[in-house]
Amino acid sequence: MAFVGRDSAVDSLDLFRLALGPQQPWTVTRTDFDAAEGRLDLYLDFPRGARFPCPVQGCGQGECSVYDTEDKTWRHMDFFQHKAYLHARVPRVRCAGHGVHQVGLSWARPESGFTLLFEALPITFAAAMPVAKVAEMTSEPDTRIWRVIEHHVDTGRAKLSFADVTKVGLDETAAARGQDYVTVFMDMVARGGAVRHRGSRCRHGRTVRPGSARARRRPGSGHRHQLRHERRVHLRHQRVSAPRAGDV
Questions:
Q1: Tell me, what's the pLDDT at 115?
Q2: Which of 46, 132, 151, 244 could form a disulfide with 25 if both were Cys (CB 3.0 to 4.6 A apart)?
């Protein structure tokens, strides 16, 4: 199969190699397109004898031999209206100093069933619509979408510093029938959300441990209400010109 232009014909594999941009020694070796199923499968592989750098941070070993491989699949961004999936046999390498470790991948984070490009979609959409709608649009369970969002939110928050925050306001709401509470702290100077704490307690004020049977919930439950409330709190604090009751 080839795509013919004015000056040359481009093989479909070359086209997908250019589109995906895999780093050496990875390359696209095969594509399978099923119009009836609405699915495109792209297969990446590396040549026999290829070597990879040690994935352990700080290790300078750049030529580790392959120890073994594991077949993995990731959901990728849709190819027009068709679902797209990447497949690869991911190697583990043997490092003289650190032993056997699985190599890092440029297109996906460890333990994720999605590519990084696909994960960018729910992160972007969730800021403007309910996660249930994002799940419907991507044809993925909302629990998987929530796990993606929570991973990237936690990663981003870990990099934040609040050393320059001097004045905060706070607000609280029940996230789920009075059993689950969300406290939002607002930077009153920068007018931005500083931090959110989600805890559990009963109506009478007695603390309920987050891991207890009373506090446990299906992954992602309560978060939609929580995010909507944060938007309301943010807008309300944007409108005021001076701190109100609850400022500390």
A1: 96
A2: 46
**211: how many CB neighbours lie within 10 A of its CB?**
8
Q: Read out DSSP for 172-201?
A: EEESSTTSEEEEEEEETTTTEEEEEEEEEB
Q: What is the DSSP code (8-state) at residue 177?
A: T
| CA–CA gap between residue 42 and residue 20 (Å, rounded) | 10
pLDDT in tens, 168-184: 888 887 766 666 778 88
From the number of C-beta atoms within 10 Å of its C-beta (0-12, 13-18, 19+), residue 36 rates as: exposed
Question: How is residue 227 written in tokens?
Answer: 């995010």
Query: In the chain, helix, strand, coil percent, each to 5?
Result: 25, 35, 40
Residue 216 identity (one-letter amino acid): R
Give the helix ranges, DSSP H, for the chain: 12-20, 116-125, 131-138, 142-158, 223-239
Report which DSSP code applies to 107. S
Residues across the chain: 248
Kindly state the DSSP code that residue 206 receives in the 8-state scheme.
Answer: -
Rounded CA-CA distance 99/67 in Å is 10
Going by C-beta distance under 8 Å and a sequence separation of 6 or more, which residues neighbour residue 10?
2, 3, 4
**How is residue 247 written in tokens?**
């400022």
Instruction: Tell me the CB-side half-sphere exposure of residue 213, using CA atoms within 13 A.
Output: 0
Q: pTM score, two decimals?
A: 0.69
Q: Would you say 222 and 213 are in contact if contact means Cβ atoms under 8 Å apart?
A: no
